[in-house]
Amino acid sequence: MGREYSNALWVERLQLTNFRSYAAANVATDAGPQVIVGANGSGKTNLLEALSLLSPGQGLRRVPFSDLVRSGGDGGFAVAARAHTLAGATDIGTGLRATTVRSLSGDDDLLSSPSTGRGQDPGGVSDRSRVDTPAPNPSPQGGGEPFGFSDESLARNAQRGGGRAAERAPSERGRIVRIDGTAQSGSGVLADYLEIVWVTPAMDGLFTGPGSERRRFLDRLILCFDHGYRTIAGRFERAMTSRNRLLADGVRDDSQLSGFERVMAETGVAVAAARLEAVAAMAQIVGKRRERDPNSAFPWSSFRLEGSIEDSLQRLSAVEAEDLYAQTLRQTRERDRAASRTLDGPHRSDLIVEHGPKGLAARHCSTGEQKALLLGLVLAHAELLTERQEGAAPILLLDEITAHLDADRRAALFDEILHLGAQAWMTGTDKNAFEALAGRARFWAVQEGKIAVSE
Ligand SMILES: Nc1ncnc2c1ncn2[C@@H]1O[C@H](COP(=O)(O)OP(=O)(O)OP(=O)(O)O)[C@@H](O)[C@H]1O
């Protein structure tokens, strides 16, 4: 695809129909920072969640799509945007048809049930290419949520004989994605248009919680500069699901198992290599930021990947690492069968982060320090992308961002965002916390599922 890097990435218009608390909303704005203020439960996070659906995957809350449908609506929802993307100005639409949601709540095989065409037009941007049935068998890059390698749930699916369902990405089943009115086979294609990174209160425990959260965080950062990454990660997950299913079914036939293990070895090493490359690029930009501002409000961090494949890639060629991983998988079949999951692989790696100036593991830092570290990583990543893409800063979704940040850190954050030229969507309950942005951002007031410009 021919890309134009001349503009930052930004959403010019966002229209919501029957999305969570919004019956209908229309936001037309500029490329600068956006501040959304409202009471608890007014719909601020819902708006960010809608924006997050303009990138691949399940969105920032990672809930099944049927949860996004407004209760009391017609049973479907639509998110439509006019955005300035890596491919120029583009209409992006996504959603679920009313009929799709009804069939999701039953036992119907959604993917073969034809839609009657009722319900709103997901995407709502154009009707040039109506889709009456969701895409059969979503493409690898469109399916599921490979980020974070949810091995536990895959193992569960495998045990239930639900591998096929896992391939179909139940959470996104029935999702329709349109680019300039043309139906797409999955949400993976959105990576070619917008790069969106978010920080939410749920990520406050990123450094103390399970490794899967850190993998998911890292994987989303990688997706921004390696658009094929999701496809590879998805292939790994599907091969692992198939192996787990064979093990659960008591299969001991080497030819069946080794076929999937070979795919796991190839894609698993590719995933680990992409992560190592991303971590090295991040370390470089963090180093640059440290030199530029050693006393930054967002302290520099050191980080490394901990994982068996990552380790072997430090001393072996990619081909040797693949052979070693394939051999490990072959030797650990009985152990994995007993554990009902695959215990070795990139789905078990971890990102270890340390507070640079303090030389302290991030998990031992205070809540505010952890937030500052996380923001430091996100800002470094945004700077890296901006550098690589001639000014195309990613869109930032920063939910409840002023919580845990003192006035100096808030001011520093706003300055960085303005310097990056990123369209950052920030939410908060207190407008005063964004005082330093007065005249430099657009302010919105949200109330009971309605949004309006605020003076
Ligand atoms: N599917 C749905 N249909 C209708 N309303 C919904 C749906 N899902 C969530 N809501 C409503 O959306 C509201 C929550 O919105 P949101 O999470 O965006 O609030 P918020 O402004 O971010 O609040 P806080 O400041 O507490 O984080 C709740 O009132 C909830 O009942």
From TrEMBL:
A GO cellular component entry from the record: cytoplasm
The entry's keywords: ATP-binding, Cytoplasm, DNA damage, DNA repair, DNA replication, DNA-binding, Nucleotide-binding, SOS response
Binding sites annotated in the UniProt record for ATP: 38-45
Subcellular location: Cytoplasm
GO biological process: DNA replication; DNA synthesis involved in DNA repair; double-strand break repair; SOS response
One of the Pfam families matching this protein, by short name: SMC_N
Described function: The RecF protein is involved in DNA metabolism; it is required for DNA replication and normal SOS inducibility. RecF binds preferentially to single-stranded, linear DNA. It also seems to bind ATP.
HAMAP family named in the record: RecF (MF_00365)
Protein name: DNA replication and repair protein RecF
Organism (species): Hyphomicrobium denitrificans (strain ATCC 51888 / DSM 1869 / NCIMB 11706 / TK 0415)
Organism ancestry: Bacteria, Pseudomonadati, Pseudomonadota, Alphaproteobacteria, Hyphomicrobiales
